[in-house]
Amino acid sequence: xxxxxxxxxxxxxxxxxxxxxxxxxxxxxxxxxxxxxxxxxxxxxxxxxxxxxxxxxxxxxxxxxxxxxxxxxxxxxxxxxxxxxxxxxxxxxxxxxxxxxxxxxxxxxxxxxxxxxxxxxxxxxxxxxxxxxxxxxxxxxxxxxxxxxxxxxxxxxxxxxxxxxxxxxxxxxxxxxxxxxxxxxxxxxxxxxxxxxxxxxxxxxxxxxxxxxxxxxxxxxxxxxxxxxxxxxxxxxxxxxxxxxxxxxxxxxxxxxxxxxxxxxxxxxxxxxxxxxxxxxxxxxxxxxxxxxxxxxxxxxxxxxxxxxxxxxxxxxxxxxxxxxxxxxxxxxxxxxxxxxxxxxxxxxxxxxxxxxxxxxxxxxxxxxxxxxxxxxxxxxxxxxxxxxxxxxxxxxxxxxxxxxxxxxxxxxxxxxxxxxxxxxxxxxxxxxxxxxxxxxxxxxxxxxxxxxxxxxxxxxxxxxxxxxxxxxxxxxxxxxxxxxxxxxxxxxxxxxxxxxxxxxxxxxxxxxxxxxxxxxxxxxxxxxxxxxxxxxxxxxxxxxxxxxxxxxxxxxxxxxxxxxxxxxxxxxxxxxxxxxxxxxxxxxxxxxxxxxxxxxxxxxxxxxxxxxxxxxxxxxxxxxxxxxxxxxxxxxxxxxxxxxxxxxxxxxxxxxxxxxxxxxxxxxxxxxxxxxxxxxxxxxxxxxxxxxxxxxxxxxxxxxxxxxxxxxxxxxxxxxxxxxxxxxxxx
Length: 732
What we know:
Elements: E1 4-9, H1 14-25, E2 32-38, H2 44-55, E3 62-63, H3 69-80, E4 85-88, E5 94-95, H4 99-110, E6 115-123, H5 135-139, E7 164-167, H6 168-173, H7 184-195, E8 199-210, H8 227-242, H9 246-265, H10 274-288, H11 298-309, H12 312-318, H13 321-331, H14 338-348, E9 353-360, H15 369-381, E10 386-391, E11 405-407, H16 411-419, E12 420-425, E13 440-443, H17 461-467, H18 470-477, E14 482-485, H19 488-497, E15 503-506, H20 514-517, H21 520-530, E16 537-542, H22 558-565, E17 569-573, E18 590-592, H23 599-605, E19 608-611, H24 616-620, E20 627-630, H25 634-641, E21 654-656, H26 659-667, H27 674-687, H28 695-704
Parallel strand pairs: 1-2, 1-4, 2-3, 6-8, 9-10, 9-12, 10-11, 12-13, 13-14, 14-15, 16-17, 16-19, 17-18, 19-20, 20-21
Antiparallel strand pairs: 4-7, 5-8, 6-7
């Protein structure tokens, strides 16, 4: 009986098969049999093998049809083997010199263990440094022979079949064979580790795995990736049947689902059926999750939780966040060119223009939000100030006639940034912008925070990846002189999220002034502009952006919703501003208002708001009109984005979790009943403290005119305000 039987499947590797066979036959240790597995006697690999068999009696080819795959080839070779230990070597890999002698010596030290794991070297096909993936895993294995319970990390599912030598009597006695289909190494390795009673490790490279230029066959796109779940289910089911203790089951579970998650997140592996794969993987995860299991930390832990929740859109986008952040960062203006740097440097040496105010909103999206409202009030109260609005090229059309502007990235853009005394933004200026002594930076923000912001995002991997460097973020915050808030909640959260030395102005949001100053005529005009039919109740549906999702998906079938609630309603669809460049959506009773410049106009036109977790609810509450929260994925959103309070406990009105519940609150009238009004009143008390219609005036007087705090108009109490009237509702 030979010491080793070496099984070498050869399908599709005829051109490199000789390298594998030569590496075996050249070993200094000669007590082995070499079993090449060919497709058929007339296959290309068979021609290669025939020559070797004629020259060396240790070469004994066998045949397995291609339809049986790698698993069938290996099992056929195993059946033909007569050696005391079996090795499996792929037809395009090689044994390193002295490999068999090292294995024989190690087995002499440990005795005839059921499985002897060893290291392997993964070599790039062209250039690059080889890697040794098994080394960290085997470094923690005990010396000598050991029971599997002493090395629970050796589950077998992360090591290829050619990274171990197996006692043949153990394999045959346990009836172990390679499971059919793809990812057979996962199934076989897991079953071997479950059944083995004695193991050992050899911390020496035995096999050199030669990577292919076209990549691993298992990494190529096709439906075969779904078979990974078959192998995982097989191993986990056997583990449960065997009563595997928790200390071994947990690493097995984690290693299997690390592979599953990697496949689920890879956009090029599953060309179709990705959602079905994820759904089945989630069911498998929930069924076999060990009792008391706690997911790992970081991004991987987020993926575990998303899989457990069944949130495929969230998971699909998770690993794309970094790429998206890099693309977004590339759009930010940076004075990289030599000429631009020189011009900016020269302009920074010139005196500040004490009457120049530079405004920007949403990274140049246009003349909108708090900066636009402040600018409009400044033209009234401080006409001596010259204003320049910064916009992207495609937003120039949004700038009203008579408003001076500069295109972001242009020569003039850097000139006004260098000279302006006042800089007003609802986001942040580019990192390259210098905070000059004597200049005044006002951060207006653009919403009340429900979701975590700034430094508070650091513990949420999805958004932390998109945020980028927190050191750079805080450097931008350090340029602020003033930070604007609209309620005490915002004041507290901003101080946590953006710790710095700036002064907080609890003055309200200027963009919300219109909610207390607009008339019924203004409301009618806006509704006509948006195409709202006379007499119809307009429901504004404004879902927020999901950091874990790519593209815009409403999460609600609006056509079915309209059908369910009756003809008296129309829906105004307003996607998050990230998606306002997309094609129009809707038709009939669904009016897409995403591209409308002013969110304030859209809110004025709406008789009620339907949203999820968007900050628009805090602004809309100033109108004292009904709000319904559609929280179909609240648990996932809270887990991945992080929130400052539980919206489900402090909602601004009715809460619906399903489309049916949402339609029901409109059919039965509970969206606008006394109970909903009571919830809204409590919400307004907490979050509408400062939006009284005079916020812009307070900002202009304090920041641009330099008036002392004691001369600034006080906030009108909530009970004394009269919000703009709704078109079809009568307020009590």
